Amino acid sequence: MSHVMVTWVWILIRGIWVAIAWRFGDWRNWKKYQSTILYFMMCDLLYNFLTYNHPLWYYTTMPVISHVGANLLVMFITYPSALLLYLYHFPNASRFKNKVMYLTAWGLGLSLIEKAYKLAGILNYRNGWNTWWSVGFTFVALILLKMHQTHPLLVYLLSVGSAVVLLMMFHIPV
After folding, report:
1. Full-model pTM
2. How do residues 9-44 score in pLDDT, each as one tens digit?
């Protein structure tokens, strides 16, 4: 697939996220999710700042969009859309088993999408990062995002601790 085609497919996928979120997300109550969306965006901005010269993953430069542009589109379009779906439909009052199944479905789904990006050459790993790290990271992120709604300070502490561990494990110069 040509780079131009990959770029337009990638942009189309952003549109699909928005369309699904527009239809099935909780747009009327977006303020309920705003702090969690901003937390996730802040974490991604911080990751990009701290790993600018030593990235663990990056979007392949495309003719129409650079890595930074691609990342900003994901941050401002995909993350809010996905979180409006994920958090709104999370089975709060149901049994623990249902919550685990929901989390697993999202984790596997997002990991499969990322694997498809990797196979298409849209996303690349570097500096020791691999698919398994990414899958684990996705599951931890989904858990923290849900926890953020009820225990934000705890999530901030866990996030700082996780970031320090990852910076040391992957020898990221800060």
Report:
1. 0.90
2. 777 888 888 899 899 988 889 999 999 999 999 999
Rounded CA separation 165/1 (Å) = 37
Domain chopping of the chain, boundaries = 3-169
Alpha carbons 160 and 76: distance in angstroms, whole number: 22
Tens digit of each residue's pLDDT (9 = 90 or more) over 78-119? 899 999 999 999 998 779 999 999 999 999 999 998 998 888
**What is the sign, positive or negative, of the torsion defined by CA atoms of 67, 53, 108, 162?**
negative
* 134, 157 Cβ separation under 8 angstroms: no
Contact present, 83 and 37 (Cβ < 8 Å): yes
Name 36's Cβ contacts closer than 8 Å, sequence gap at least 6: 83, 87, 145, 148, 149
Distance CA 34, CA 157 (A): 19
User: Whose structure tokens read 């780079």?
Assistant: 3
Q: String of b and e for 86-110 (b: at least 16 CB within 10 Å)? A: bbbebeeeeeeeeeeebbeebbeeb
CB 171 within 8 A of CB 158: no
Residue 31, exposed/middle/buried by CB under 10 A (0-12, 13-18, 19+)? exposed
Beta bridge partners of 125: 57
